[in-house]
Amino acid sequence: MDGYAVLTIVGDDRPGLVDEVTRFVLDCGANLEDGRMVNLHGQFAMMMLLDAAEPVFECLRTRLPDLREASRVRAELTPAGAGRPSAAAAIPYRLTASGMDHPGLVQPVAHLLAERGINIESAQTTLSHAPVTGAPLFEMEFVLSVPAGLAVADLRTALGGLCDELNMDWRLAAL
After folding, report:
1. Phi and psi torsions of 86, nearest 5°
2. Mean pLDDT value across the chain
3. Do the beta carbons of residue 73 and residue 9 sit within 8 Å?
4. Dihedral of CA 166/167/173/175: which sign?
5. CATH match for 87-174 among 1.10.390.10, 3.30.70.1670, 3.30.70.260, 3.30.70.2190
6. What is the per-residue DSSP string for 105-138?
7. Helices (H) and strands (E) in the chain, counts
């Protein structure tokens, strides 16, 4: 296998965890090309896209149990495709939305996007507190791949209607 692999790690957050995982990657000769890392209430999660030619992938796969044991993490290595879809087939957009927190804010937005063949390339959600009232405020930010043939005006109309129903402020902007 020549191509890429995705390394996913989840474990208790502590100083040195990123050092241990990136040392493992480097010791096998992999190149970290893209990644996301976050602490979610004491659980540290990492996802990394690694350049992994066959010998590198084999090293990662063989040594993964040692990483799990030494670093006390759950770890998974998944082969990934060699390339990205053609950029000509989609246009990148950023969707941001915020509103008073309650269950069920992400799913209807994700469903609306899926119905239109829009891929969510990345998503980030945050719970904060409104400045004056201190009420819980939910914020989401999606980076989207919108099919080139999709009428963005129709997408804006649909998002506007849905976000009105959800009582959310929103913005859609081309990247």
Report:
1. -60, 130
2. 94
3. yes
4. negative
5. 3.30.70.260
6. SHHHHHHHHHHTT-EEEEEEEEEEE-TTT--EEE
7. 4, 8
Query: Which residues are bridge partners to 115 per DSSP?
Result: none
How far is residue 121's CA from residue 49's CA, in Å, rounded to a whole number? Answer: 14
Q: How many CB atoms lie within 10 A of CB 146?
A: 20
pLDDT tens-digit map of 37-51: 999 999 999 999 999
| Structure-block tokens of residue 34 | 């893209």
SS3 state at 23: helix
Neighbours of 73 (CB within 10 A): 19
What digits encode the pLDDT tens for the residues 123-149? 999 999 988 999 999 999 999 999 999
Q: Going along 1-135, which residue ranges are E strands?
A: 4-12, 31-40, 43-51, 73-80, 90-100, 119-129
